[in-house]
C-alpha cells in the first residue's frame, strides 16, 4: 500500500490549513493510500544547533520527537505539507522541524549517501494559508522554504494550494472551490 505523510505545521488545530490538509488527506485515502498525519505542534522539537554532528553519520545527535519522524519521511511515496504564513514564512514549529532535517542534507552533500529508502523520489504538495488578501510575494517565503525542504529529501514539488484572505479559524470553509481542490490534490498526489 502506498504511503502518504501529511505534515501539519500550524499550531492552530482545526484552523484553515488544517481544514485544507484534512481534505487532501481524504483525497489521498480515496486514492487508496495510507496516510500518516504528523501534528508538529504536539511534538517536542528542539531547533538545530548547528553542531555538525550529522556530518559524521547522517543522523541527528538530538534525541527528541523528530527521531521518530525521520523514518516516515524516507519511505513515504507522497508528502503533503500544510502551514500558515507567519511573517512571510512558515510557522516557527514547522521551521524548527525542517531545520532538523539537516541530517538528510549531510547525507546527500557531505556523505554522498542516498537519502530515501528504495528507488526514486516521492511526490510533494504544499498547502499554505494567509490572512492578507493579495500581494505577489505573500507566499514566496513559504514556497522557497518548502521547495528547499523537498529538494533535500528528493521529493518532487508537484503543486500547491495557496489560500489568502483567511484570518479567523474556519474562514477557509467559505472557499468551497479550494476545499475541492485540496481533495483532488490529495487524490492525484501519487499519480504525477
Ligand atoms: C504569528 C503570526 C504571524 C502571521 N503572519 C502573517 C503574515 O505575514 N501574512 C499574512 O497574510 N498572515 C499572517 N498571519 C495570519 C495567518 O497566516 C492566517 O490567520 C492563517 O489563516 C492561519 O492559518 P491556520 O488557521 O492554519 O493557523 C499570521 C498569524 C500569526 C499568528
Automatic annotation (TrEMBL):
Task: Report the InterPro entries cross-referenced here.
Answer: Flavoprotein-like_sf, FMN_Rdtase-like_dom, ISF_SsuE-like
Q: What domain of life is recorded for the organism?
A: Bacteria
Keyword Flavoprotein found:
yes
Print the keywords alphabetically.
Answer: Flavoprotein, FMN
Occurrences of domain NADPH-dependent FMN reductase-like (ranges): 3-144
Example GO molecular function: oxidoreductase activity
List the protein's name.
Answer: NADPH-dependent FMN reductase-like domain-containing protein
Give the organism, scientific name.
Candidatus Brocadia sapporoensis
Lineage, highest ranks first: Bacteria, Pseudomonadati, Planctomycetota, Candidatus Brocadiia, Candidatus Brocadiales
Amino acid at each position: 500500500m502506498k504511503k502518504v505523510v501529511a505534515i501539519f505545521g500550524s499550531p492552530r488545530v482545526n484552523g484553515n490549513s488544517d481544514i485544507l490538509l484534512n481534505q487532501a488527506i481524504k483525497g489521498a485515502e480515496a486514492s487508496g493510500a495510507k496516510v500518516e498525519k504528523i501534528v508538529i505542534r504536539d511534538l517536542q522539537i528542539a531547533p538545530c544547533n548547528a553542531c555538525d554532528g550529522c556530518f559524521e553519520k547522517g543522523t541527528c545527535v538530538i534525541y527528541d520527537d523528530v527521531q521518530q519522524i525521520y523514518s516516515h519521511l524516507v519511505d513515504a511515496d507522497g508528502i503533503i505539507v500544510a502551514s500558515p504564513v507567519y511573517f512571510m514564512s512558515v510557522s516557527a514549529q514547522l521551521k524548527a522541524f525542517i531545520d532538523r532535517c539537516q541530517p538528510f542534507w549531510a547525507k546527500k552533500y557531505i556523505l554522498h549517501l542516498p537519502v530515501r529508502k528504495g528507488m526514486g523520489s516521492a511526490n510533494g504538495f504544499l498547502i499554505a494559508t494567509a490572512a492578507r488578501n493579495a500581494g505577489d510575494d505573500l507566499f514566496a517565503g513559504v514556497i522557497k522554504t518548502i521547495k528547499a525542504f523537498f529538494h533535500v529529501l528528493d521529493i518532487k514539488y508537484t503543486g500547491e494550494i495557496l489560500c489568502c484572505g483567511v484570518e479567523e479559524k474556519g474562514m477557509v470553509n467559505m472557499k468551497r472551490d479550494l476545499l475541492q481542490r485540496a481533495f483532488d490534490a490529495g487524490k492525484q498526489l501519487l499519480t504525477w
